[in-house]
Fold Hydroxymethylglutaryl-CoA lyase.
Amino acid sequence: MKVKITEVGPRDGLQNEKVPVATKDKFEFIQLLIRAGLTNIEATSFVKKESIPQLADAAELSALLNWNGPVEFSALTPNTKGYEAAKNAGYKEVAVFTAASESFTKKNINRTIDESIQGFKEIFTLARQDGIRVRGYVSTVIDCPYEGKIDPKKVLEVSKILLDQGAYEISLGETIGTGVPTEVERLLELLLKEIPADKLAGHFHDTYGMAIANVEKAFSMGIRSFDSSAGGLGGCPYAKGAAGNLATDDLVYFLEKSGVPTGIDPGLLWEASSFMEKAIARELQSRTYLATKKKREA
Ligand code: HMG
Ligand code: MG
């Protein structure tokens, strides 16, 4: 029973942080994550600097990474310009991102859903030639900050298009962390009629503390790939009120205690989270992280 954990702390975790984090600290954070046992790490985004100033050092950070080790690094690429930059930086995996809500897509990447998908065609073609894997994100799979409830049929439609274009996996973005397990169940019941479970990943945010319950529901329905961020860092600047991602600390605690090995050392993971907590100068929210902190301080 193998579970894939994609650590999105350096990207989703930091993209909304107001305090600028030095490139060397981002690199050190990634090193600590690797030391803890994370093997899939979303390191940064190749996007417009004005859109996400915190990640404007994508190329500089990527130049520091060890491309010959066992870790799979990936980066977000909204268009061909971003794709080319990621390829030149050494990435063997990139992620394209769109949503099931028109308003969110417009605010996030200044495109309609259809325009975004048309734009990705070139990325998929180039990636096939270049031997680069493409992951597809579909955001707002349950609720949208602008449109409210999202029809699962729209999630299915967009996911299928990205898979047909060549995405190896669809990460289902529960962008604002408002969803509950019954909603996850309703969504997955529909998706799993047409998409195999091993092509889907859960990307839950934890605004209402429902992320781990949503993982449990998705896991019980066969999903074995989850995104999370150390300490529960995170949030999307285009989704007001969205708190951090599901914390890797909580995910690892939940899986290990449920008898699912993760290969991640919780103590070393705690150190990675703690390092970033100091760098961003605000307290992290992960319950597991905080419980361990109290124990260590006692
Ligand atoms: P645009 O303004 O429509 O782009 O932005 P444009 O093509 O008109 O170009 C405008 C300028 O941007 C040009 O520069 C381009 O060169 C530059 P100028 O000529 O004016 O000097 N530009 C770029 N620069 C660097 N890298 C690029 C790039 N592309 C254009 N790749 C765009 C459209 C998509 C670029 C912009 O809206 C953008 O970068 N958006 C990124 C938003 C983002 O990163 N959001 C957060 C990630 S999504 C998320 O968090 C959700 C997720 O976690 C899942 C979930 O939780 O649901 C994944
Ligand atoms: Mg996210």
Observations:
- The chain has twelve helices and ten strands.
